[in-house]
Design a protein that fits this description.
By secondary structure, the chain is mainly alpha-helical. It is 61% helix and 9% strand. It comes from Aspergillus violaceofuscus (strain CBS 115571).
Amino acid sequence: MSPRISRSQRLMVVIAISSAFFVSEISVGFYTHSLALVADAFHYLSDLVSFVVAFLALRVSEADDSPKALSFGWQRAQLLGAFFNGVLLLGLGISVFLQSIERFISIERVENPKVMFIMGSIGLGLNLISATFLHAQPAAHAHDLGMMGVLVHVLGDAANNLGVMAAALVIWLTHYEGRYYADPGTTMGISVMIILSSFPLMRRAGRILLQSAPDGVDAEDVKHDLEKIPGVLSVHELHIWQLNQQKTLASVHVMVSDSSVPAFLRLTKTINECFHAYGIHSTTIQPEVVHPGAISSLETEGLEKCQVVCGAMCAGLTCCG
């Protein structure tokens, strides 16, 4: 059986490959005056930063100890790194797009397109190796947003290399004066692809950071099922959110008429089973006891309001304020 390579080790290999190629490509880009090569090299530089961020986020998330102020530990470190990578991609794409417009206005001859083509070919090969290396990971980590961010960077680089090679062939094999527009044209296409690739990453990581409910879980459906449980009078202040890609949490206020502890413990077991059916395995349940004789006197709106009175000073600071 071949030894299993950890995610940290995969990232270290990709960082080493990207570092070596960045130095080579930026040098050749300035030598040949190719904006496409320079843009691709700076894309590599942003990739290096993002790879290092993803690597550090991964190492931090795997750490056993964390500051006392972080009650959930480093469980969102990789999500933060993935969101940072998305923002970095967006900024880079806009910057390269503006550079390509400037080059369209003031066209510059590309020297030695053959070297430009060779450099693009080497980059394509290295990126395909890196992508294969990153993709060959255990199924448990197949949808890791941190690793997904790195993979998006690498695949974007591979597409960029194809564009560089196409521009180099146009400049190399054709002889009309407008052939040099292939370089900024390719750069503009690269920048648009970079911008478009940043949005899904930012959206998915951002939604979790904003504590949204996971896809496929509707709070109204959960509330409806909870209120069908015998002994539950009403449910309010139901909050469902993702801590990370694997863990979903929930908190809820449950109005009951039986104030005995054993009865509430039995009810809690049933409530948790309902949450488990939705993939929610960590819950906080706040009981609110209503005297049986007062149930009939409460209007429907009253059953939706908190029965635990906080006071005027803190009412606006509670989740149900």
